[in-house]
Design brief:
Number of domains: 2
Strand content: 15-25%
Oligomer: single chain
Number of helices: 11
Largest sheet: 4 strands, parallel
Structural class: alpha/beta
Helix content: 40-55%
CATH architecture of the largest domain: 3-Layer(aba) Sandwich
Order of helices and strands: HEHEHEEHEHHEHHEHEHEH
Number of strands: 9
């Protein structure tokens, strides 16, 4: 019993909007968090049939959000109908994990009362990006479905916001062209605003644009490392019973 308690303290649940496993982004999290933090995944769309997935497509007037299926393809789903599926998946993770991370850089305010303790990276990301871009032009890269709302969402955190659409699931050329375009539009800093972007993509965006580039997934992994490292050290020092 005591050993199970120690294991839970060093375990992070990863709640993805789509389907797990997330072989695209989990390696980035593991590389930064290290081997002392265990990861358990659950997806809101796991085990859904093709008919059930089709039902989640946004209808007229509904807000959509892009997510990933286990096949590697992307899917646009209605945020409202996704909510109860995320709550159910959160419940499965909560029993075995010290904390649960929402693998999304967007905000889900309705999850706050339904999933106590759920880490929504967007709040920390806004503070970090805002601290760096408050007097600068911020370049946002993200899926096309997010770009209409992006200027309004990020304008409180930068002197000026410019956007270019590129999905983390598209060929590298899309991100490269978006990064170069943001530099041409006066960006001082680029933020890859989707949790599916990886460290490799962050490096590419910085290289082709010759600008500092931040990435939602790597920034999140780094503040989670700060959160979990004391727990992992305690776990390592505890005698095994």
């Amino acid at each position: 019993m005591q050993n199970r308690h120690h294991v839970k303290k060093s375990t992070l649940g990863v709640l993805t909007l789509g389907q797990s496993p997330r072989t695209d982004v989990i390696p980035t999290l593991r590389a930064i968090l290290g081997g002392s933090v265990s990861l358990i995944e659950a997806g809101g769309l796991n085990a859904l049939s093709s008919e059930e997935l089709a039902y989640l497509a946004p209808r007229q007037g509904e807000r959509g959000i892009e997510t990933r299926l286990s096949s590697g393809s992307s899917l646009l789903v209605a945020r409202g109908r996704l909510l109860p599926l995320l709550v159910e998946a959160f419940g499965r993770l909560e029993a075995d994990c010290a904390r649960v991370l929402l693998l999304c850089s967007g905000e889900f305010p309705d999850l706050v009362p339904l999933c106590p303790g759920l880490i929504q990276p967007v709040f920390a990301l806004r503070s970090i990006v805002g601290g760096l871009a408050s007097n600068s032009t911020l370049g946002i890269v993200g899926p096309a479905s997010d770009m209409d709302d992006a200027p309004l969402q990020w304008s409180p955190f930068a002197a000026r916001v410019v956007c270019a659409a590129a999905s983390p699931y598209e060929p590298p050329r899309a991100l490269s062209e978006a990064s170069v375009r943001l530099r041409s539009e006066g960006a001082d800093l680029i933020f890859l605003d989707d949790m599916a972007f990886t460290e490799e993509q962050r490096r590419m965006a910085a290289s082709v644009s010759r600008l500092p580039a931040l990435c939602a997934s790597t920034l999140t992994a780094r503040f989670l490392f700060e959160l979990f490292s004391p727990l992992a050290e305690v776990e390592d020092s505890c005698p095994r019973i």
